[in-house]
Amino acid sequence: MTMHVAIMGATGVVGAEFLKILQQRDFPLASLKLLASSRSAGRKLTFRGEPLVVEELTADSFAGVDLVLASAGGAISKKFVPFAVEAGAVVVDNTSAFRMDQQVPLVIPEVNPQDITGHKGIIANPNCSTIIMNVPIWPLHQAHPVRRIIVSTYQAASGAGAAAMAELRAGARAVLDGQGFTPKALPYPAAFNVFSHDSPIGPDGYNEEETKMVCETRKIFHCPQLLIAASCVRVPVLRAHCEAINIQFDDRVGEDDVRGILASAPGIRIVDDRCRNYFPMPMDASDQDDILVGRIRRDVSQPDDCGFEMFVSGDQIRKGAALNAVQIAERLLAR
Known about the structure:
30% of the residues lie in helices and 25% in strands. By secondary structure, the chain is α/β, with parallel strands linked by helices. The chain has 2 domains: 3-125 and 321-334, 3-Layer(aba) Sandwich (Rossmann fold); 130-316, Dihydrodipicolinate Reductase, domain 2, CATH 3.30.360.10. Strands 10-11-9-12-15-14-13 form a 7-stranded mixed β-sheet. Strands 5-2-1-6-7-8 form a 6-stranded parallel β-sheet, sandwiched between helices. Helix 1 (13-24) packs across helix 8 (318-334), helix 3 runs parallel beside helix 5 (208-221) and helix 3 crosses helix 8. It is globular, with a radius of gyration of 20 Å.
C-alpha cells in the first residue's frame, strides 16, 4: 500500500526533516506534495534525487491527499487542517493547535499507539520536550507506577526554528569578534547565555512550555492526577534538547530493575559511563532517532528508595517532531 502525502510547512526546519526521514525510512509514497506560504511557492526542494516544486498552501490543496504531515504553526493548522480532513486526509499535526482537544489523540508511538485508532481525521504530535521526557519514563511507569516527576529542560535553539539557529551562530561570531548583537528570533542573545524559555508566563508563574509538558503528559499517560513540575530553559546549543528528570515511584525500585527496563525499551539508548564521566550530550543526540539516557541513579534525598534521577538528550527536530509524526504515519499505514 502507498499513500498520497502532503507536507504542510515544507520549507521550515521540521519540513526539511520530514523530507529526510521519509527518504531514509523508504516511506511508501504514491505522491508527495510540498505546501508552504505564498512567499515560498515556486521554490524547488530535492527528494529522492528529484526536484519538487513547493506549492502555495490553500483550502484546495488537499484533493486526493491521504496523509498530511503538518508543521506550519498553530494558527495555520487551525485554519487549514479542517480543509484537509474535509477532503478525506488524515492529518498528523506537529503544532499545539489540537493537542489538548479531547477529540484528538495525542500520540507517542512508543507510549500510546493504541490511541491512534480513535482519531477523527486529526492526530496530534506532542511537544518536543514532552516526547523526549516520556519515551524513557513510560516503560518505567508501566512496571512501577510513577507518582511524581520533576523535570528541568535545557532546550536548544532548534526548538525556536531555523531563524533561532542562525541567530545563535551569528551571535556567537559577534561575541567572539567583540561586536554588539541584537537578537530578533529570540528575546535575548542566545550565544554564551541561558534564559527562561521564551514562551508566555501564565498566572500561576509557569510558562507555556512547562504547562505543555504537564498537561500533555497527563493526557498521553491517561493519568490526570500525575504530579509534574517543569522548569524550561533555553541554552546555547544548536540542536537536541537535554532534560534532568527526577522520578518518584509509588513503591521501592532497585537500580538494576530501572536499568534493565530502560535497556530493553524501544526508542532508548543507554549512555551511562561513570568511569569516563560520559553521559548524554546534544552532540551525540543530534540526528539520532533514539533518546539517550544516562546519569541513572537513586535520589539520595528519598530514603525509602522510591526516587530515581536521570539525564536525557534527544533531537528536538527529529524524535521531538518529524520522526514521531512519521512513526505515527507508519502505524496508520500498518492498520
